[in-house]
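Objective 1b. Sequence-to-structure analysis of Crp/Fnr family transcriptional regulator.
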Amino acid sequence: MVEPFRKYLLSKATFTEDELAQMEAAAVAKKLKRREYLLQQGDVSRNMAFVVSGSLRHYRTGKDAQEHIMRFAIENWWLNDAESFRTELPAKGAIDALETTHVLLFSKKNFERLKREIPTFSSLESQLAGRYLDAQANRLYTAISHSAEERYQEFITAFPDFYQRIPLHMIASYLGVSRETLSRIRKQTS
């Protein structure tokens, strides 16, 4: 399971064999079945997860018991509840598998150690964190300034791999529209 992780790392930066071995040794492999939780709401997010295969969703449940999807993650994506991971407070959301999913887990202690000991890994993590913040800002802007149709088209363009793998009701939740609205939009754009 570490070979895809190694390929991912080498596609992003130059690492020595020793650094790769150090990162691989810090990882704990885990297999999740469909609908199995990686993190339950109220638990502390103690791991950073790298998706080797499969897909995950990070979501929060509203007072009306409706799920609000914050993020999806597929192969070569990182995911955790960032606020809980950083603060070590209970997570406000949950993460579960949308299909059989294999992840590599890095405890906070190991993740921080790798960033301290491997400058290239620290630089990569900083770049990814910056891209994540940019994506969140763009998503917020899109949510408040674009129509449902425009949000859907941007989602399809930005995440063509997600569209085929993620149920439509979850895409609707991510876009902040009802399933019926998404169905209407899809019919109009077909």
